[in-house]
Amino acid sequence: MTGYIIRRLMQFLPVLLGTTFIVFCLAWGMPGDPLAGKCGDRECPEAYVALATEQFHLDQPLVVRYGYYVADLVRGDLGTSFTGRQVSEQLMAAFPATIRLALLAVTIEVLFGVAIGIASALRPGKGFDTGNLLLGLVIIAFPGFVIANLAQLIFGVRLGWFPVTVNDPSSLYQLLLPAIVLALGHQVTLSRLTRTAVLESLESDYVRTAHTKGLRPSRIVGIHVLRNSLIPVVTYIGKDIGGLMAGAVVTESVFNIQGVGGLIVRSIRSHDGVTIVGAVTVIVVTYLVINLLVDIAYAALDPRIRYD
Predict the structure, then answer these.
(1) 8 Å CB contact between 108 and 179
(2) Chain segment 169-219, per-residue pLDDT in tens
(3) Are 218 and 117 in the same domain?
(4) Which of 11, 46, 74 is the last residue of a domain?
(5) What domain count does the chain have?
(6) Same domain for 260 and 113
(7) 35: pLDDT confidence band, cut at 50, 70 and 90?
(8) Rounded CA separation 149/254 (Å)
(9) CA–CA separation, 190 vs 125, rounded Å?
């Protein structure tokens, strides 16, 4: 296991460098002057342009500027945005809202996804199973921003059940509708995965043996089937947390949530490449760490798995 962890940590480096380099090139390669609009409607003074050019290495090629970024990153410095604020400070202020949204979304995803998946597997091919499949296809067919805007219009504007925008990210009630929207597509995948895993367990030899011993169906499903079926489900849930944090970019933008996603969108609009790259770097590292922890937990849950 120790050797596996070391190998995975070594794999982090090329993934992190490759991802951040691509994002760096996209962020700083956007058309237009990166200093445009930084002084309002006025033209920026020459002294400010010279200082910003030196500070952000704007007179250097992209590859060289990326090298400066990596050097700062090794020292734990995510950089300073055009507004003069440290990127790390902005992320510390924005991350709590994103974490709350992601955790609430994964809770909704697990509660409904696992329950629907089990119910579909126990009566495969019946009305509930078929309806769930068709509804899932419809949900997946719609882009996330479309579902977010529809939910905002129907449940926020028309029915008034939820606030249209989130003014207080610490309020679970205000985060509920965005969390449902964020969890919707992931819940569909989780329910199908749970259904498949439960069906495979129901057809296994140990379930047939349990039936021949006269065990109650509820006991067979509740103990034998679920215990073995939920191993791949737990793995998917763990890795999906990173996906939910990435998917929060669109949801936070639609519902005006002051989280990491909203920060990235605002930075894109203002051509703030420093903040864009810094925020994506933190998201990538978070995703990689979560994946490693899930793989370790997977081995702990299933003794048959060993990492050489």
Answers:
(1) yes
(2) 788 888 899 999 988 888 888 888 888 888 877 777 666 776 676 667 667
(3) yes
(4) 74
(5) 2
(6) yes
(7) low
(8) 7
(9) 18
> Which stretch of DSSP H or E encloses residue 293?
helix 273-301
pLDDT at 244: 79
Q: What is the DSSP string of 38-100?
A: TTTTSPPPHHHHHHHHHHTTTTS-HHHHHHHHHHHHHTT---B-TTS-BHHHHHHHHHHHHHH
Residue 67 lies in a domain: yes
User: Residues 137, 23: one domain?
Assistant: no
Q: Are residues 32 and 151 in the same domain?
A: no
Residue where a domain stops, chosen among 74, 108, 133? 74
Place of tokens 């974490």: 99
CATH code at position 206: 1.10.3720.10
Beta bridge partners of 80: 86
Residue 167 burial (CB count, 10 A): 11
Residue-number span of the structural domain to which 40 is assigned: 2-74
d(CA 261, CA 91): 10
Amino acid at 13: L
* Per-residue model confidence as pLDDT tens digits over 9-32: 777 888 888 888 898 888 887 666
On average, the pLDDT of the chain sits at 80
Assigned token pair, 295: 């793989």
Longest Cα–Cα distance of the chain, Å, equals 86
Based on the domain organization, do 191 and 227 belong to the same domain?
A: yes
Answer whether 2's CB lies under 8 Å from 8's CB: no
